TrEMBL record:
<comment type="pathway">
    <text>Alkaloid degradation; nicotine degradation.</text>
</comment>
<dbReference type="InterPro" id="IPR036010">
    <property type="entry name" value="2Fe-2S_ferredoxin-like_sf"/>
</dbReference>
<dbReference type="Pfam" id="PF01799">
    <property type="entry name" value="Fer2_2"/>
</dbReference>
<dbReference type="GO" id="GO:0051537">
    <property type="term" value="F:2 iron, 2 sulfur cluster binding"/>
</dbReference>
<dbReference type="InterPro" id="IPR012675">
    <property type="entry name" value="Beta-grasp_dom_sf"/>
</dbReference>
<dbReference type="Pfam" id="PF00111">
    <property type="entry name" value="Fer2"/>
</dbReference>
<dbReference type="InterPro" id="IPR036884">
    <property type="entry name" value="2Fe-2S-bd_dom_sf"/>
</dbReference>
<dbReference type="InterPro" id="IPR051452">
    <property type="entry name" value="Diverse_Oxidoreductases"/>
</dbReference>
<keyword id="KW-0411">Iron-sulfur</keyword>
<keyword id="KW-0408">Iron</keyword>
<protein>
    <submittedName>
        <fullName>(2Fe-2S)-binding protein</fullName>
    </submittedName>
</protein>
<keyword id="KW-0479">Metal-binding</keyword>
<feature type="domain" description="2Fe-2S ferredoxin-type">
    <location>
        <begin position="17"/>
        <end position="93"/>
    </location>
</feature>
<dbReference type="InterPro" id="IPR001041">
    <property type="entry name" value="2Fe-2S_ferredoxin-type"/>
</dbReference>
<keyword id="KW-0560">Oxidoreductase</keyword>
<dbReference type="GO" id="GO:0016491">
    <property type="term" value="F:oxidoreductase activity"/>
</dbReference>
<keyword id="KW-0001">2Fe-2S</keyword>
Length: 187
């Protein structure tokens, strides 16, 4: 037997499992190699290409998805570890570009993105942290998004977007409270 044949890749190449989970509200069952990461499963098997791969070893946070409402780095999880869990990607937030989620509207309004590579992760992390309905200071937002690296924006516009999204969600959605968003911004 050669060294190549005895490598971990060779030994586990044919090892598969059936995994069943919910992804963006739909139950999904697939046979997957046990070595497949959750990120690769979402992108390659389910075509959810909002899941972006940067470093692929847990540093950049761009592969962030929500697992049972909490953010996880999908490059560090195996697909089989998601068995029985609920996964959300940014594709779940809006049906099309004319019906954006309030968080997506806030990122657009505040120019909280440039190249967009980190944006799906930032939007999902924003959904997670705003679930408590609380207002946040700049420093609090800065700390809460610190696990996701943005190469472009300098972060202040993202912080503004998170705070804007919080105002929208607290009043029930975009425009639901008339001019209150603008008043809150100027306060
Ligand atoms: S691609 Fe997962 S943390 Fe960078
Ligand atoms: S907008 Fe480019 S990496 Fe964040």
């Amino acid at each position: 037997m050669t060294t190549t044949e005895n490598s971990p890749e060779a030994r586990y190449a044919g090892d598969t499992r059936t995994v069943t989970l919910r992804v963006n509200g739909q139950e999904v069952t697939r046979e997957v190699p046990t070595r497949t990461t959750l990120a690769d499963f979402l992108r390659d098997d389910l075509d959810l290409v909002s899941v972006h791969l940067g470093c692929e070893h847990g540093v950049c946070g761009c592969c962030t998805v929500l697992l049972d409402g909490g953010s996880v780095r999908s490059c560090l999880m195996l697909a089989v570890q998601a068995q029985g869990h609920e996964i959300e990607t940014v594709e779940s937030l809006s049906a099309d570009q004319n019906n954006l989620h309030p968080i997506q509207e806030a990122f657009a309004e505040e120019q909280g993105l440039q190249c967009g590579f980190c944006t799906p992760a930032m939007v999902l992390r924003t959904k997670e942290i705003l679930a408590d309905g609380q207002e946040r200071t700049d420093d609090e937002v800065r700390h809460e998004i610190s696990g996701i690296l943005c190469r472009c924006t300098g972060y202040q516009n993202i912080i503004n977007a998170v705070q804007n999204a919080g105002r929208k969600l607290r009043c029930g959605g975009a425009g639901g409270c008339g001019s209150a968003h603008d008043e809150a911004k100027g306060a």
